[in-house]
Recover the amino acids of this structure.
């Protein structure tokens, strides 16, 4: 069983490396266009709500803690610990998406969505910033939705008592995915919300 | 992989991550000139390392898994390095027609 778990963890990491490369392309676009249009990046970042962004950062770190505790509970065969921490993880993930919904709604109201309705008084280069903002946070949010569905499946398995000290691979593997999505946000928060706050 | 971390370790990592988030926000308000983004990225990198080593348990994984986990970030540096090496140096060399 130990060898099976090692193989599963290795396989998950190979998948996560492809995910790193996937998000890496977007970060590459961010670096390049920020170097070409620094002023548009500062102006765009000023329109983001850093309080909501910061709140979501804290929410995701909380969810990572409960996720780690859920894996630990599975390792020691604690049914209650698994169920409670998985439910908390799902709740934190949902809070994140609800906050994100309100942020997106505000962007639509303020005509900050790239396209024909983009505020004509703004430098068109800012559309690049907002395109990347929506693409990066949007794909991140999509990963959160996938993560929540994954956690619901794991919760169902945990509820039925499928996991024990001998067999807890699925919790561990799903946890790796969840933490990875948290790491992406750890980089997105300062790069999108906090640049130019000192101006 | 059968390593079980103590709850105390997880709470310590969690507290550190929250404190560093506060530090990131505080530093973003200070004018460090060109250093603002590098400092923010250094803190984010440290936070990510804590998550990878302890929450994801890579510290207790096999050497093979450690190498695979690190490889993703090595390739990321190659991607960023070579692409920006190209774009940032294009203006250095003049050539006919430009």
């Amino acid at each position: 069983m130990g060898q099976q778990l090692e193989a599963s963890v290795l396989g998950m990491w190979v998948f996560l490396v492809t995910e790193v490369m996937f998000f890496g392309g977007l970060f590459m676009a961010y670096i390049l266009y920020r170097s070409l249009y620094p002023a548009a990046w500062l102006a765009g970042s000023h329109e983001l709500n850093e309080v909501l962004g910061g709140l979501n950062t804290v929410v995701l770190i909380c969810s990572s803690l409960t996720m780690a505790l859920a894996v630990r509970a599975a390792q020691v065969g604690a049914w209650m610990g698994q169920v409670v921490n998985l439910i908390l993880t799902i709740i934190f993930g949902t809070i994140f998406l609800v906050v994100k919904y309100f942020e997106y709604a505000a962007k639509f109201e303020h005509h900050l969505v790239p396209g024909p309705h983009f505020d004509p008084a703004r430098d068109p280069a800012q559309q690049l910033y907002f395109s990347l903002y929506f693409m990066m946070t949007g794909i991140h949010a999509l990963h959160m939705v996938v993560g929540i569905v994954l956690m619901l499946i794991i919760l169902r398995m945990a509820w039925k008592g499928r996991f024990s000290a001998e067999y807890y691979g699925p919790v561990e593997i799903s946890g790796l995915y969840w933490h990875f999505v948290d790491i992406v946000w750890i980089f997105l928060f300062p790069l999108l919300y906090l640049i130019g706050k000192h101006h | 992989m059968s390593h079980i971390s103590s709850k105390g370790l997880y709470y310590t990592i969690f507290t550190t991550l929250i404190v560093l988030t506060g530090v990131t926000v505080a530093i973003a308000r200070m004018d460090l000139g060109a250093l603002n983004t590098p400092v923010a990225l250094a803190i984010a990198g440290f936070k990510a390392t804590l998550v990878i080593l302890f929450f994801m348990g890579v510290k207790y994984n096999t050497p093979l898994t450690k190498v695979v986990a690190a490889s993703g970030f090595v390739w990321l540096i190659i991607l960023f390095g070579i692409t920006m090496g190209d774009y940032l140096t294009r203006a250095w060399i003049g050539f006919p027609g430009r």
